[in-house]
Amino acid sequence: MLTQELHRLWKRKKAPLSEVDVDEVFNKSLLGEMARDKLQHYHARIDLHYPQEEREAACHFLSTLSLSDNGLPQDALFHLYRQIEGCKTESRTGPALSQAFQRLLLYLQSDFYIESRDDGSFDFTSRLLKTWWKKYYGYECGGKLRW
After folding, report:
1. Are 63 and 120 within one domain?
2. How many domains is the chain built from?
3. 47 in a domain, yes or no?
4. Lowest-confidence range among 9-23, 55-69, 110-124?
5. Residues 117, 63 within the same domain
6. 26 plus 57 within the same structural domain
7. Which of 120, 141, 115, 145 is nearest to 130 (CA)?
């Protein structure tokens, strides 16, 4: 999408593009309303394809990760998962809780939302998706990290 919009701008300007042009296209086109329709499916597909008991945690993970500078360690995500699970009337504990957490991480990795880093932390696979998620959903958790 970025390349396409930069090409269109280059054709209109008929001159080399600057760093300012790239930033403007990124902020207007990729984080604006035009791209929202193209990227909205990343949020909507959680409701469509994730088990109901994991949807809230998936959205909280992504919202919290979008607010982080360099991702979060796995133990911080597990702490957040325990908080979310503890608010449920039928919360899981022990091995069932750990297995559900690992399964959710696997879902999010398999669907290319997040990736495991060399240092054991997790972050978004795509900087574009992270920036977009932060803009539209990052503050649904109250605007702060909850761990």
Report:
1. yes
2. 2
3. no
4. 9-23
5. yes
6. no
7. 115
Can you tell me the distance from the alpha carbon of 56 to that of 43, in angstroms, rounded to the nearest whole number? Answer: 11
Find the radius of gyration of the CA atoms of the chain: 18
Which alpha helices (H) appear in the chain, and where do they start and end? 2-13, 19-25, 33-39, 41-49, 52-67, 74-86, 94-110, 127-137
Q: How far apart are CA 139 and CA 143, in angstroms?
A: 4
23 and 62 in a single domain? The answer is no
Domain range enclosing 120: 52-141
Please, what's the largest Cα pairwise distance for the chain?
A: 63
pLDDT in tens, 88-102: 878 888 999 999 999
Say if CB 29 and CB 2 are below 8 A apart. yes
For the record, the structure tokens of 145 come out as 């990290």
Q: pLDDT tens-digit profile of 23-50?
A: 888 878 777 776 777 788 889 999 999 9
* Residue 118 belongs to a domain: yes
146: in domain: no
pLDDT level of residue 103 (50, 70, 90 thresholds): very high
